[in-house]
Amino acid sequence: MSRSLLAGDPGLASMDPAITKLEDASTTIYHGDCLDVMRELIADGQVDLIFADPPYNLGKQFGESEDKWPSDEAYVAWCYSWLKLCLSKLKPTGSLYVMTSTQAMPFLDLWLRNECTILSRIVWHYDSSGVQARKLYGSMYEPILFCVKDRKAYTYNADDIEVQAPTGAVRRLIDYRKPTPEPYKTTKVPGNVWYYPRVRYRMPEYEQHPSQKPEALIERVIKASSNVGDLILDPFAGTFTTSAVARRLGRRSLGIERERGYFKIGARRLGLAQTLDGEDLRPLDKTYIKRNGRGASGGAES
Ligand SMILES: C[S@@+](CC[C@H](N)C(=O)[O-])C[C@H]1O[C@@H](n2cnc3c(N)ncnc32)[C@H](O)[C@@H]1O
After folding, report:
1. What atom of ligand 1 comes closest to residue 56's alpha carbon?
2. pLDDT of 131 higher than 70
3. Fewest beta carbons within 10 Å, which of 10, 12, 115, 119?
4. Which positions make up the signal peptide (predicted)?
5. Would you say residue 158 has pLDDT above 50?
6. CATH code of 151's domain
7. Could you write out the DSSP letters of every residue in 115-158?
8. Helices (DSSP H) in 3-143: which residue ranges?
């Protein structure tokens, strides 16, 4: 990774002792608070794409920390502080995707409208396993905002994310409205409701984390809003899904995670270390208990 991506040239020795990093030619991962890392180590105006998937203030346990703020006001004030930093790290042509809970998103939406342009309000819709709500409509989606700094100059690779557009017809339909009739196009750019299954224990990509995002979802974001060689930042890396997909798609990436356990998952998932803190970094040992001879699972679902 080129040192010019960093503010100054801190080097490991002079870095804030609360921050550690691992890197290779395309990928840098930081263990630290994203506010500190963005302020101290990432230069302004360098990043092409940010995928920000913060804690949602819903009381989940992330490693040693509980995802709970004293009030909604305190939570959104914290969000505004990292969003401001994120926007300063983006190039003038950069894009920002932001996730949070359905409850908190309206506050972020209103705030972001004054700072940049929100181009799409995306719904990530998924299936639901386990007990269903009985007295209200259970939650089956999470919102994502797609924002750009300059609505006249941003990356959007529509051809790279096209999906099948089922017409319902068995035969190929001909569009007779064209000057020369031709078959209807059978692919289209996806709309703003995206269906992707949540990451489950049985899936090869599963890591031990309470809100890991599917690689397929992040793949669509990266393909649409960046090019090969571009720099992508994920300030709340969790299991470093963004870094893993960025690497597979030939992009450079910076990922930041506050919990040491998840940083170790990232180090292993990205092949940046085999041991850390004297510990061998091994993939999760998934065991399946056969109960009936047909392969029924004793493993937990996410
Ligand atoms: C919703 S999860 C992200 C999951 C990630 N997208 C993935 O696919 O694995 C949010 C993550 O942010 C981390 N986090 C919370 N506060 C943070 C902070 N101030 N700086 C860096 N990471 C933080 C949590 O430990 C958690 O792993």
Report:
1. 1
2. no
3. 12
4. none
5. yes
6. 3.40.50.150
7. TSEEEEEEEEE----SPPPSSSPPP-EEEEEEEES-TTS----G
8. 34-41, 72-89, 105-113
Rounded to 5°, angle at Cα 261 from 83 and 69? 40
Residue 289 lies in a domain: no
Domain-embedded: residue 173? no
Reported as a single tens digit per residue, the pLDDT across 197-212 is 999 999 999 999 999 9
63: left (phi over 0), alpha (psi -120 to 50) or beta: left
pLDDT of residue 291: 54
Mutate to test the pocket of ligand 1, among 257, 264, 284 (most ligand atoms within 8 A of CB): 257
What's the pLDDT at 129? Answer: 67
Say what the pLDDT of residue 295 is. Answer: 45
What integer is the mean pLDDT of 9-30? 79
- The conformation of residue 9, written as its DSSP 8-state character, comes to -
- For 168-199, how does the pLDDT look when each residue is reduced to its tens digit (9 = 90+)? 777 778 888 888 888 888 899 999 999 999 99
227: domain range?
Answer: 3-157+191-280
- For residues 264 and 240, is the Cβ–Cβ distance under 8 A? no
Specify if 109 maps to a domain: yes
Please, which pLDDT band fits residue 146 given cuts at 50, 70 and 90?
A: very high
Q: Which residue has the tokens 């470093």?
A: 240
Residue 266 belongs to a domain: yes
> What is the Cα 278 distance to its own chain's centre?
29
Pocket test for ligand 1, best of 20, 40, 236 (most atoms within 8 A of CB): 236
pLDDT band at 294 (very low <50, low <70, confident <90, very high): low
Ligand 1: residues with CB < 6 A are: 33-34, 53-55, 62-63, 209, 211-213, 236, 238-239, 241, 256-259, 262
Cβ-contact 84, 270 below 8 angstroms: no
pTM of the model: 0.90
The torsion angle over the Cα atoms of residues 195, 189, 108 and 138, rounded to 10 degrees, is -20
